[in-house]
Amino acid sequence: MLSEIETVNELPNYSIDYLMKKCGPWVNCRGILAQNNQIYSMKIVLQNNTITNAFLHISNVESNQECLFVPITRLILLRFTSSQLMLTFCDYDDKSMLFLDDMSNERQFELFISQFHICATLSKNCDDNWRTTNEQFLSKNETAKNIIPKANFIDPSTTSCAISPVIFDENVRNTWMKRSRMMNTSYFTKPVELTICCLTWNVGSGHPNQAVENDLSEVAQFDADIFFFAFQEIDMSFQSIINGKSSKTDEWSNCIANCFADKKNYTIAYSVSLGGVFATAIFKNDSPIPITVDLPKKMRLGLHGMTANKSAIIFPTTVGENAKINFVGCHLSAHQANTEARNQELKSLLNYASMNSDYVVLIGDLNYRINLSYEECLLKIKNNDLDQLFENDQLNQARKIDSELAKFEEGKVSFMPTYKFDKNSDVYDTSPKMRIPSYTDRVLVATSPKRLAIGSSTQFVFETDIIHDLFPGAKGFIYEQRYSSDLLPPNFPEKPKYILYMNRNIQFSDHRPVQGVLLLKVPVVIPEKLEEFNNYSLKKIDEMSSLAKPILEPKSLDLIVGVKKTIEVKFKNVAVSWAPWRVVVDGDEISVSPSSGVLFPEQTGTIYITGIRKTAIASKFQIHGKEKYSRNVVIESSDGIPLCFIQVRVSNKLSM
Asked: Which Gene3D superfamilies has this protein been placed in (predicted)?
């Protein structure tokens, strides 16, 4: 198992490829770029799975080269015909690109155009961080003005096209379900308290003995849902520092296992070491809150990531309804003067661990010192002047002036400095080095911005229901009930409470262990409410399928036309989908033109029916109560679904 654990050498670069992996798929369209006649993939992807934060991603299909990644906003103008679409990038000197439909997917342009327009209309996205890449591609591939045809391009804002990709692709459906589920946590969840017990201890290369096991067993008696322990300097040998592996890992793993041996309702998820750092995560099996600890990640911090004398181990954990907690056990740079190095290491860890997480629980020997002289510090300790000791703590001071470090919360420090003690003694360092007593060992928590509403709603929320507001007159809705597309104000995550923050008095190393117990409120599913949500989600998908079907009005007509006479018939597409149509006639007594076409939403089409000769035996229909002979003209969709029935009789009397 340990060989599978990922070692993180550096923070992710925010490349297009990296960000694409963080976005949910929405629309995948292919087009031929008129400028160079090459096929490009044009994708709409959703950051955080929301249509309010959409990106346009263009790549070359043949070379697989990433070409463009730009937020979809009103600063990109889209115009289209049934087989062409033109994009004009207003924020890039109005450069335009014309794409032709490569016909690889019958409805791909329709999907792209409808969703591009909706995403641009609702956009809350202005995060255009790839301008250099985008400008290079647009400058090289801008469609020349003489190539752009003089076609009647349509502005999507003049139509009500709103076909959804959810019904065509399972991956897209998953994107929609993730977003819908997140938006409805307020309906099917309730807040439940989660208790976390943390302990950090620099053990000074010692071997765990019975006294250590007894003390840790006492900690293990706490009724917590999750235990997270981190030990530093389990092994500071040259081999451990260079290759990160230690023979002492098993010693500390066995010690922890012994401490929890009589607690059968707990499982040790992982016990992992890197260099001198050893960390373990333990969770309660019968907790009312589902808990999943994912594969840990390891990060070397020594010598710019080269060595493991200073390192970190990260345990990504999911609790309840997709609440994310990253547990970090670490050992930062030592010595009084290295405050800035510690600050940078701590900020790097926070930057990495806070991605896709609600909480970062960071514990370890952070090595922050007290900025007092040795004598002043001892005097403050003697006088029990905790306020002055903490006031001069380097981390406390850094948090006051650094907005990133200020994201960390800490319990009230009501104990004496935990470093540095003489061996087997409660006396602070009396060696010639006279190390200044300090709060090196800490339990910190960083809380991400609120993103979910928990347990406060009595109705569903569906982002895609925005089409009710955008196109109120559209036909095809099969359920009268509609829902808000706006999120309720989020109330999760809230800042945690420290219900215990203390040092433990055991003479084993030159540090004292520090224990912190945290109380968090996390969302937990109410099963019957979740079932209601799932059932209604299926109904919404059915409605999307209905909205994807073209609807023509009128649906039926009875007409008479004279021989060698022509009548005009108009019909309108009242759906939110395109209506490719064709005419089917069941006899040769009439002719119809045009025989096919495409109607965009809200557009009106016209056909011309000409009588050739009087209708003979054919189907019967009533005009003024009398049976007359007629021919059937059917306007049907491209897949053969009848959209409009027209019964036509050719009469000699109307020819005069």
From this structure: Endonuclease/exonuclease/phosphatase
| Alpha carbon distance 439, 367 (integer Å) | 8
Alpha carbon distance 353, 299 (integer Å): 11
The answer to whether residues 187 and 536 touch, using CB atoms and an 8 Å cutoff, is: no
Structure tokens at 86: 């033109």
* Residue 353 resides in a domain: yes
Same domain, 559 and 641: yes
Distance separating the N- and C-terminal Cα atoms of the chain: 92
Same domain, 110 and 236: no
To which residue do tokens 């990253």 refer? 326
Task: Give the CATH number for residue 150.
Answer: 2.30.29
Per-residue pLDDT reduced to its tens digit, 328-367: 999 999 999 999 999 999 999 999 999 889 999 999 999 9
- The tally of domains found in the chain comes to 3
d(CA 514, CA 364): 9
Whether the CA torsion 207, 213, 215, 216 is positive or negative: it is: positive
pTM score, two decimals?
0.85
Kindly give the pairing relationship between strand 323-331 and strand 359-365: parallel
CA distance 480 to 451: 30
Sign of the torsion angle spanned by Cα atoms 50, 56, 60, 66: negative
Q: Please, are residues 78 and 89 in contact by the beta-carbon 8 Å criterion?
A: no
H or E stretch at 534 = helix 527-547
Query: How far is residue 411 from each of residues 396, 414, 499, measured CA to CA in Å?
Result: 12, 9, 8
Chain-centre distance of CA 238, in angstroms? Answer: 42
Q: What are the C-alpha distances in Å from 492 to residues 48, 82, 409, 519?
A: 16, 45, 16, 14
Taking residues 165-181, what's their average pLDDT?
A: 96
Provide the Cα torsion 319, 320, 323, 327; round to 10°. -10
List of E strands, 369-504: 408-410, 441-447, 497-503
CATH code for the domain in which residue 580 is found: 2.60.40.10
Distances (CA, A) of 337 to 378, 403, 434, 533: 19, 21, 15, 57
The span from the CA of 611 to the CA of 596, in Å, is 19
Q: Are residues 156 and 195 in the same domain?
A: no
The pLDDT tens digits for 200-247 are 999 999 999 999 999 999 999 999 999 999 999 998 665 656 555 667
Residues 21 and 124 in one domain: yes
- Statement to judge: residues 351 and 483 lie in one domain: yes
Residue 466 confidence class, pLDDT cut points 50, 70, 90:
confident
CATH number at residue 469: 3.60.10.10
Residue 621 has pLDDT above 80, yes or no: no
Question: Which of 107-116, 328-337, 368-377, 468-477 comes out lowest in average pLDDT?
Answer: 468-477
Asked if 278 and 421 sit in the same domain, the reply is yes
Q: How far apart are CA 332 and CA 346, in angstroms?
A: 8
Q: Is residue 607 part of a domain?
A: yes
Share of residues in the chain with pLDDT > 90 (%): 75
Pairing mode of beta strands 291-293, 307-319: antiparallel
pLDDT tens sequence across 300-332: 886 665 555 688 999 999 999 999 999 999 999
From the list 576, 574, 575, 573, the residue with the least C-alpha distance to 598 is: 573
Question: Based on the domain organization, do 75 and 220 belong to the same domain?
Answer: no
